[in-house]
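Pipeline run #58 for the internal structure catalog. This entry was flagged by the ingest filter as a single-chain record with no existing model, so it goes straight to prediction. Upstream metadata was stripped on purpose; only the residue string is passed forward. Reviewer on rotation: M.T. Logging verbosity set to normal.
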Amino acid sequence: MEAQREPVDLVVVLHVRKGRNVPEKWQELLKVALEVVTERLGTKDCLAVVPFMPSLVPMSEENSKAVLEQYKPDSIQTDTSLVITLESAESIFNGRTYEDKKKRAGYIVVISNSEDDIDSLLTWRFLSVHAFGFRGARNAWTIHTIASSRDCSYAILDDELGRITEAFAATIDRITSPVAVMPIEIQLRCEEKVHLCGLMGSPRISYSISDNKKNGTIWPRAHLPDVPTNFIVHLYTGNLRQDECTDLSKVLKVSAKYYENLGASQARTATNFPKGQDGIGEVLGEEVEVATITNRMHGSREVAAEIVRLEAVRIIHEIIEENKPDWNQLQAAAKKQRDRWTKLEKYNEGDDEDGKKNLEIKELVAEIILENKTDWEKLSAAADKLRKGWTRLKYSRCGLAAGELISSLSSEMQEMETRLYNNYMWPEYLLSWKSHQWWQLPLPPLFMDKLDTEDDPLLRLRITANVDDIPRHKKGLPVLVHVMAPEVGLAKAKRAPVDVVALLDTEKKTKKKRELLIKAMEVIMDKLGHQDRIAIIPVQEPPPPPTQPAARFMDMSKHGRRETSIKLKSIVVKKPAPPLPYTYPSATQTSHGRDHHSKFIKFVTNCLNIAPTNTPTLIPSTTSSGSDDVVTDGGTKLWNALMDAVKLLDDRKEKDHLGFIIVISDGNGDFVRQETLPSKYTMHAFSFRDGGTHNIRAMHYIATSSSDGIYAVIDDHLNQVTNAFTTCINKITSTITVDTEVGILCSNSSKEVALSAINSGKFTSAIEKKEDEDHGSIFVGSLYAGAVRNFIVYVDMVKIVSEEDYANFSKLFTIHIKWFNAFSSKEAPPKSVALPSVHDFAEIKEKLDGQVVIVRDRPNESKEVMTDIIVRFKAVKIIHEITNPNYKKEVLVERLQNICHGNTRLVREIQTMVTNLRRGMDILSHMLSWETFQGLSEHPPMK
């Protein structure tokens, strides 16, 4: 007979704070969440939704539909604080009648993106709150605090694919499920020779032990059918003989009191359990059999696994407590930061002749850069503590006894360590995991992310053959090869450590450009972890004097960050040397604007080391000299800086870090031969919005010297760092695979199929013909978390008529992908504290075999994707022609227009460029940036 449950009063709080992080499709997410709730509530249950339905309404079929009809996203967005909204939800419960409070369970479900300070909120008032934050809202600490009372839970609402998580659905199921047993208390009685020592790892389980330690009482929570609640009680048995320890039932008695019938919410929500009030049910008592088990007996592994679980919860709890933010300190730091920037903005006001203000400004620049947002050393220490603690626990006596029963727990602990190391949504995961484990609530296996369990979690490979396209392609059957490194790979593998060389062109820069360089370096330093290093090379002419220290890599420890800030200060804000060539405005220029400008110029010339003459630019060679020399007019500063950067990376003794070069310059520079620029390291290049065409083409050329380089503009119209720059730094600091290679095999012994061509865009590909096989390869290189690469492989001589032909093709044509993990994480021995070495790759290359999916006779998603890819490759090739200053705009516009078919996002972007070109708009930087992103199968970031 199915258990009956008591009716539920549920208040759902939807709170989306304006101006805070929220998913792109949050409106749809909240609607789906409401659908999940209304589907699971019965006709006797009542629902209220804050803010648009502020009273409890019975969930009849009609009212369930009304809830979704009344849902208006505009009413959800608010400036009201989360504290006030929660108090509104509480007032709904307080307005219920005495009978309803006694007989109906009450819950609050909160969904919010708020980062409000909730210190004023007395969370113990809310005894049954389940709180959910949006993915990426960065409000885990706030939302978790709300759900910190008894039996409350915290989780993330949406997964990496923008769908409702299993944790949300499981929570609603738990709320609307019948309670199987409602214990009132468990009583323990010890005989003379033994006594109670305490309860293990149960800080939020209420219990009491008598003064003589002979009697104990435990008040457990209610639980669901088939969901046990476990307790580990320490019993002192030192006075027992060895033969007496084989049967503890003679010295320990256990009994339980519980309700036979349930009808009240009090027993589910109150800390003090009721004792026989009217209408609740009859209280029964029952003595429980005590079974004694020893090592290797049935049940011993379960006891060992529970001991390990409790100890694991303790480890995570300590890490959370040690790393939770100090809200007062954060607010004080934010105010201090704003005050400093305000002071820096006013540097050109007032008299500055004594140089004191210049020195003060230099110190402010150093301090602002130093105070980055992320304490990477602290996170690294936390990850190391977790790894060492779990390793000791796993190989402890209990861990070894538990065996495979803790395999799932082991995977979760390893994932938490990786998230800490990568700084990837670790508060969300750790807090959600702990809130469920704390109360022994069921935790769905994929409670936060929905990884494809059939594929390796690091890479996914999808292969689609559109057989009905054979007649349309002269090269043969087009096969789409889709390679993806999911973003959630950062939860499964440690990212590669990096060495970044930043080339900063600081000469003759305005105040705004110098501020922008500082902001750009803030972005880089905030993303670099303790294991990363950075070097700064100024782009300057004449070359730095011999007395100036050579550029070197600095680690990202606190000391290294301070050194980096001092280095940046010496480059961005410098003392005048040599004498400056500027002519100051005459005294007759008396307008306020002239005076203000004069003081600004005076400060710049005092702070920047500006060359006495205009720097000549590199010019194209008009003759072929047959040598590799670069023909210049003396302006080789950018070239020299690039060669210094390459040499710095080449000369590293430890080459276990991936090397990257970032160039930020508005100088002119045209390089003569492509082979003169090394391509062994990825180079990302950025120009300023007001950069000329020579600068734009030079930066684009530098970026495209490597297959995965990005070119973009670094500043937007508000003088803020662009999303393109931030995205680029995110890629650098999230590389999870290296030496990635796609392998293709056509077995053509029967001459049925042949590999005819590979369209790989910017990536190198090759085809090797053998007697019985065709081998193809695409060299993808490094992949960062979130990367997608699309390729098209053409297979010739394919004759598919019957179903048997389809099956046969999948056997003759196979594709796989191989890669190295960017950071090999070999598990250390139990007593070892040494971290595994980076790139410990000896014969551990991962491999994933793909399954060819045949699609035919109908429009499908893969067919649209393939059409888009073909258009993308053509568009990239066409747009690349504008790197030649003599390109014909009319011809280029016509060719772009001819490839625009359909209404996809890619086609719309191309059509917009065509329209802007016809209008005569200057979009050179936009088009070349678009070309570098699209060459990597990516859309440029907005703004």
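catalog note: The mean pLDDT is 78.
catalog note: The chain is about 35% helix and 20% strand.
status: ready for reviewer M.T.
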